[in-house]
Amino acid sequence: YLLSIYSKKYLDEGTEEEQEAKSERNKKTITEMQRLMKEGGHIFWVAPSGGRDRKLEATQRFAPAQFDEA
Fold it and tell me: How far apart are CA 62 and CA 53, in angstroms?
């Protein structure tokens, strides 16, 4: 399964209709995640689509980015 949600950072962008559609999609995704959790045997990997976790130039290894409260 590939599930996606809109980051709260982007929920307020676009027209009112687009914002409502994004919010509705997020609700449907969360509902599907709840269903899968009840079913069992699944792993969830939550990653930002903006790719905030980048390779460190010094080590060429990935490191978690600082927490963004936005």
Answer: 6
Distance between CA atoms of 56 and 2, rounded to whole angstroms? 27
What's the pTM value of the predicted model, to 2 decimals?
A: 0.61
Residue with tokens 């949600």: 5
Where residue 60 falls (left for φ over 0; alpha for ψ -120 to 50; beta otherwise) is: left
pLDDT tens for the chain, residues 1 to 70: 788 888 887 888 999 999 999 999 999 999 998 999 999 888 877 766 555 666 788 988 877 667 666 5
Residue pointed to by tokens 């409260």: 69
